[in-house]
Amino acid sequence: MKITAIRTRVWEWTGKTVPPSANFCTNAMDALYDRGDAMGSFRFHGWMTCEIETDAGLVGIGNAALAPRIAKSIIDTYMAPLVVGQDPWDYEYIWQRLYRSSHAWGRKGVGMVAISAIDIAIWDILGKAAGQPVFKLLGGRTKEKIPVYASKLYSAPIEEMQREAQSYVDQGFSMFKMRFGWGPKDGPQGMRENVDRVAAIREVIGDDTDLMLECYMGWNLDYTKRMLPLLAPFRPRWLEEPVIADDIAGYAELNATGLIPISGGEHEFTLFGFKQLLDAKAVGVIQYDTNRVGGITAAQKINALAEAYQVPVVPHAGQMHNYHLTMANLNCPISEFFPVHDVEVGNELFYYIFDGDPEPEAGFIDLSDTVPGLGLTISDRYLDDFTIIE
Ligand SMILES: [Mg+2]
């Protein structure tokens, strides 16, 4: 089998969006004095699809959510010529070819995002060629079903957040993730706003449930050290990305307190990046994002490494590529699930581009044993709400 063509498209959402309210989610831009719309640079209302065609008539679908116009340009001008003509079963060779040939300017960031999109599409082809779901090529079924956590609960007035949490309880979820709205610039009053919301959510979800806390890089080492003892009594399962991705020593110092497991890796790349995190004991939970980290090929290597360190892996985001990896790895205990809703930060955009995502039932999702590949198709339901760049 030979790859014959790569088609990339950028999907830019022009439909209705939910405007962000103040203090709905901390982020790395909060540290700057320009207080405008700090979250603006972390919303993404564009997506890239990457369809790889073969001479066997099979088409694999990959995607990327970060800097989609740049990722498209990298694939079109640089990477496609290195991939066309190759046998998709030589996925490791193809991955190394792209990684090593882009090494001077790639390695991390959008160069790796482009490789990830290609790699995911190749795995979709392999599943379709084998007539098997991708998880069957990665290790098979390690779980009857995948437990998923409801991941939204952006910071808002307390009663509003409690109503939202109750709706997830009513749907049968027993694991929840909430976002913080206040950080270092907001002082002791902001600390109290944060703690009050954690207490309020705990009140709704009860004690025998898992609660995850998300900082999205909007705190710093000093602030987090002061917050940990205030949050620990609520027994969170983890505290996510408290500091920026490059502050590995900061992660390690926080994780070493043992007060709350620190999670991260959503903005880290490749096996080498995760070896650094693991060697430093920087995280208690790994959360690579498959469509940034180097695709399924890189994710599987990180899964093996993390298993040897006995650090669980919970890939960032829902999405089929993450579900397949989670299903196939015993060391991936649960998956993130973004509730389907109107377009807000952009996490939810893939529901508007693709068909095939499983719907959770009572806090679990399942994958079909018979649908080959990743199980996604590109939808035509919302074409009028996108500008599509070929
Ligand atoms: Mg996160």
Q: According to CATH, what is the topology of the largest domain?
A: TIM Barrel
Small-molecule binders here are: magnesium ion
CATH architecture of the largest domain: Alpha-Beta Barrel
Return the string of H and E elements: EEEHHHHEHEHEHEHEHEHHHEHEEEE
- Count the strands? 14
The low-pLDDT segments are none
Structural class: alpha/beta
Arithmetic mean of pLDDT = 96
* Main pleated-sheet profile: 8 strands, mixed
Helix content range of the residues, please? 25-40%
Describe this structure in words.
The protein is an alpha/beta fold. It has two domains: 3-131, Enolase-like, domain 1, CATH 3.30.390; 136-380, TIM Barrel, CATH 3.20.20. 38% of the residues lie in helices and 16% in strands. The chain has 13 helices and 14 strands. The strands form three sheets. Strands 4, 5, 6, 7, 8, 9, 10 and 12 form an eight-stranded mixed sheet that branches. Strands 3-2-1-14 form a four-stranded antiparallel sheet. Strands 11-13 form a two-stranded antiparallel sheet. Helix 8 links the parallel strand 7 and strand 8. The longest helix is centred in the first third of the chain and has 21 residues, at 110-130. It is globular. The two termini are 26 Å apart. The structure holds magnesium ion. Magnesium ion binds next to loops. Magnesium ion binds at residues 214, 216, 240-241, 266, 316.
